[in-house]
Write a structure and sequence with these properties.
The protein is an alpha+beta fold. It is built from ten helices and four strands; from the N terminus they run ααααββααααββαα. It has a four-stranded antiparallel β-sheet. Helix 3 packs across helix 5, helix 5 packs antiparallel against helix 8 and helix 6 packs parallel to helix 10. The chain is elongated and about 135 Å long.
Length: about 450
Amino acid sequence: MKNLQYILVVTLFFMLGGCGIYTTYQRAECLPVDSLYRDVMREERNSTSVANLSWRELFSDTCLVRWIELGLERNTDLLTARLRVEETRASLKASKLALLPSVSLDPQGSVTTLEKGGTTRSYSLEITAAWEMDVFGRLRNAREGAKAACEASLAYEQAVQTQLVATIADTYYSLLALDKKLSITQETVENWRANLRVMEALKRAGQRDEAAVAQAEASLWAAEASILSLEKQICELENSFSVLLGITPRKIERGDLLELRFPEDMSVGLPVELLSRRPDVRQAEFELAQAFYATNQARSAFYPQITLSGAAGWTNSAGGMISNPGSWLVEAIGSLVQPLFNRGTNEANLKIAKAQQEEALLAFGQKLLDAGVEVNNALIQWQTARSMLKLDDKQVAALETAVASTWKLMQCGNTNYLEVLTAQQTLLDSKLTWVTDKYSEIQGVINLYHALGGGVD
C-alpha cells in the first residue's frame, strides 16, 4: 500500500512537470492559401465551383458512366488503396485498445506422484489485469497519430479514385478524338480516290499529264497510311483502357465526339476550398498531423511509464492435497518505470521526429502550391482551347471554300493540280487540328475538375 502511495505522489510530481506533452494538432496559419489563384481568375472565385458537381453530372455520356463504374469496382490501384484503409483502421483500433486495461486468464495445474504411491495435486485459476496510466500522453498521442494515419489513408484512397475517374474520362475522350480523326481521314481518302479517277480521265483526254496523276496517287497512299496509323493507335489505346478498368483487352463501346456537352462556364470557387476538396492535400495535412503526434510521443519517452496491475484467482494453496479446500488469491501491484540510461537515444528520437514534422509541413505547403498551379493551368487550357476552336471553325470554312474554288479553276484550266492538292492537304490538317483542339478543351475540363478535387462523389 505504501508503494502505491509513493507511486501516486511521484506521478503527481511528473504530471506538473509534463504539462503540454499532449496537445491537439492545429493547422499552420502561414500557408499561402488566399494567393493560390492568379489575378485573372478573381472573377471566378465567388461562383459555384465545378468541383461541386459529381462526376455523373459532369460526364453525361452513358457509355463513359458505365466504364467509370466498372473501373471503380475493379481497378487494381483503387482496390489496393481500399485495403490500405482497412490496415490503418485496424491499427487505429489497436491504439484505442491500448488505453484500456489488459486482462488475461492463467489456469495452471499439476499432478505429482510420490515414491510411496501418494499423489499430490495442485491447481490455480488466476486472472491478471494491468493498466498503464497514460499520465504523459504516450498512448493518447499514439492513438491520435493512428487516427491521422487512418484519415491519410482514406484521403489517399479518395485521391486514387479522383485520379482514376479523370484518367478513365481522359482516355475515353482520347478514343473519341482518334475516332473523329479516323473518320475525317477516311472521308478525305474517299474524296481523293474520286479525284484520282477524275485525273486519270483527264489524262486519257489529254488534258493532264502523268505528273498530276502521280501526285494524286501519292497523296492518296499517304492518307491511307495515316488510316493504318490511326487504327493502330486506337487498338493500343483500347488495350490500355481495358487494363485501366481491370478487364481483358477488348473493343471499347463509346459515343461520338460531336455529341459531347459540358457546362459553358467553369468556375473554380475559393482557394481555401482546396484544403477540404483536394484529397491529396488532405492526405498531406493528415500526414503532418501524424508527424505532430509522433513528436509528442517522442517527448513523452522522457517521462516514466506508470502501470497498475493486479491478480485474483482461486488456488488450493499450491501443493496441498486435492481434498484441501481452495482459497482466494489476491494481489495488487503498482510499478513506475523511469528511463535512466537511454536519454541520449530519446533525444535523438526527438530530433528525428521534429525534423520529420518539419518535412511534413514543407510537403503540405508544397502540395497546396502544386494544387493551385494545377487549377491555374487547367483553367487556362480550357479557356485557350475554346478560343482556338472558334478560330478553327473559321479556318475550316475558309479552306473548304478554297478547295472548291481551286478545283473549279483547275477544271477550267486556270490552275494546276498542285494548288488543288495543297488546298486539300491544308483542309485535312485544319480539320485534324480542330479535333486536337476539341480534345484539348475536353482535357481542360477534366483537368480542372480533377485539380479542384472532384471525382470523389
